[in-house]
Amino acid sequence: MVYISSWDEFAERSIQLFRADPQSSRYAMKYRHCDGKLVLKVTDNRESLKFKTDQAQDAKKMEKLNNIFFTLMVRGPDADITEVTGKEQAETQVTKKGRGRKQ
Q1: What residue intervals traverse the membrane (predicted)?
Q2: Neighbouring-strand partners of residue 27
């Protein structure tokens, strides 16, 4: 198993791997607090893709990939994933309710 150094390549190949065989594909995440490393692994028992990071900013990317996998699992491997977003965009759509005076 070789680690993929580019996040974009890892995400694209992981989605392709899942779409090719959704019944036997697995997605695992492992975090070691003492090292501060996060390892993501996608496999279908024939091919394994791994990505390792120690950057906190990659957590948002990982969250978006989780949302993509959840969408593919629920809607099927042919689902359109272009509208799938991370938590940061979903929070901006929430309207604020203030305590101000009604006009």
Answers
A1: none
A2: 42
